[in-house]
Amino acid sequence: MADKGTVIKHIKIEGRVQGVGFRYFTRKTAQKYSINGWVMNMSDGTVEAVLAGKKKSVADMMDELRRGPATARVKGMKEAPIDGDVDDFNSFTVKR
Q1: Per-residue pLDDT of the chain (96 residues; tens, 9 = 90+)
Q2: DSSP summary character for residue 19
């Protein structure tokens, strides 16, 4: 069971976020902050991700994702509800 210092977030990132290395930027950032979960391009042109880890680390990662890699243009980030536990994730993967 996860402790109270951890959180899980499901986010949707909008803008010019596909074809610009955004998923790999997300994976690298997840490694930097010791975040588990996944990231995936969606058919509507957005990128979705699940971030699981310490509250501060997830918040810091979300701040970096709002900026994205230099070639991206993030226009917005929305949170979606998610069921689950931080312990449900033991790595960070890029889904295709």
Answers
A1: 456 799 999 999 999 999 999 999 999 999 999 999 999 999 999 999 999 999 999 999 999 999 999 999 999 999 998 988 888 999 999 998
A2: S
Known active-site residue 23: yes
**Which residue, 32, 35, 26, is CA-closest to 6?**
35
Question: Among the options 41, 66, 73, 90, which is catalytic?
Answer: 41
- This model's pTM is above 0.85: yes
Burial class (CB in 10 A: 0-12, 13-18, 19+), 82: middle
Q: Where are the domains of the chain?
A: 6-82
Overall fold of domain 6-82: Alpha-Beta Plaits (3.30.70)
36 has catalytic annotation: no
